[in-house]
Amino acid sequence: MIGILICQIALSIVLASVFLIRPSLTSAMGWKIVAFIGLCVLPALCLVGGINTHVQRSETTRFCTSCHVMIPYGQSLYIDDANHIPAQHFQNHRVPTDMACYSCHADYTLYGPLDDKLRGLKRIYLQYVTTPPAAAAIRIPGGFKNAQCLHCHAGARSFEENPVHSPMMDSLKSEQVSCLGSGCHDTAHDIANLDHQKFWKPAQ
Amino acid sequence: MKLSGIGIRRLLQTASALVILGLLTEIVSLLWFHPLSFVLFAFVAAGLIGLGILVYLVSLVFVAAPSDGTGD
Fold first, then answer.
1. ipTM, interface predicted TM-score of the complex
2. How do the pLDDT tens digits run along chain A, 204 residues long?
3. How far apart are the first and last CA of chain A?
4. Least CB-CB distance to B72: which of A16, A23, A66?
């Protein structure tokens, strides 16, 4: 996919170079059309392709863990403990492993992806301009919402018919009871105790 | 200076240079797998390409086409 986009960019560069060297070519009608394609249509398409590629790339686990501060969070996905919610989801493919972070942390609302990008830019600012927080000190603004869990689990038979979940379904949906913060599934990324954990090694 | 005084050739060359610079920056951002590559694309490449397109469109709207045979 990136290969096709780079070929398109190369073609656009060649066409733009023609008008950089010989701008007088545009006096002919045919070249006017070529100039419109080379300086407007193709660059705009390259821009759209670039946005698409970068947005898709920013959803990958590899991208998230390419930040130094996120490396321990990536390691916590391999903790060999069934009570460790992110690790359990990752290791049992309850979320796509190549999009593990995004699956649980994406804001699934209308302007959610835009909010996510702005939060990501803020973290880049913290990393490169100010002093970044320690990995264990990072907290999600407003806390982890049940909506993130319910995006997949709501409607699932095993979840809805669970004798613990069913009586409190309304409270879960209205965020009155937190999936993570109410003592039920409270072991998320345990970064502070990462050194004492046993890790799962996937078979090659 | 009025836009018509600048001339379509100069505007076309400026637009081409901006678009080429933006596209080269986009290639770098695509081949560089790093959180900063998104910033490079969003703030540098997209800005240069957008500005290049804008200069080209301005040249179409506000400046008369060059006459034949005047050379570069």
1. 0.82
2. 789 999 999 999 999 999 999 988 888 889 999 999 999 999 999 999 999 999 899 889 999 888 888 899 999 999 998 889 999 999 999 999 999 999 998 877 777 778 888 888 888 888 888 888 888 888 887 888 899 899 999 999 999 999 999 999 999 999 899 998 788 888 888 888 888 888 998 887
3. 26
4. A23
**Closest CA of chain A from B2, distance in Å:** 20
Q: Does A135 touch chain B (CB under 8 A)?
A: no
Give contacts of B21 with chain A, Cβ < 8 Å.
Answer: none
Q: Exposed/middle/buried for B24, CB within 10 Å: 0-12, 13-18, 19+?
A: middle
Answer yes or no: are the C-beta atoms of A203 and A94 closer than 8 Å: no
Q: Which of B10, B14, B23, B70 to mutate to test the interface with A (most CBs of A within 10 A)?
A: B23
Tell me the chain A residues in contact with residue B42 when contact means C-beta distances shorter than 8 Å.
54
Q: What residues in A contact B48, CB-CB < 8 Å? A: none
Kindly tell me the burial class for residue A27, based on how many C-beta atoms sit within 10 Å of its own C-beta (0-12, 13-18, 19 or more). middle
Given a contact cutoff of 8 angstroms between Cβ atoms, the answer to whether B29 and B45 are in contact is yes
Q: Which residue of B has its CA nearest to A55?
A: B38
